[in-house]
Amino acid sequence: MTTAVAATYHDGRTSVSRAVTILVADGLLHVEGDGFATAVPLAQVRLEPRLGNLARRLDLPNGASCLVPADFELPVAADAPARMERWVNEAEIRWAPALVAAVIVLVGLWATIVYGVPSAANVVARRISPSVERGMGTQALQTLDRVALKPTELTVERQAQLAARFRTLAGLSGLGDGVVLLFRKSPAVGPNAFALPGGTLVVLDELVAEARDDDEIMAVLAHEIGHVYERHTLRHVLQASALGVLMAAVLGDVVSATSYAVAAVPTFLLDARYSRDFEREADDYGFTLLDRAGIDRAHFARFLTRMEAKSGGGSLPGWISTHPPAAERVR
Ligand SMILES: [Zn+2]
Question: Strands (DSSP E) along 99-208, which ranges?
Answer without folding.
Answer: 150-151, 180-185, 193-196, 200-204
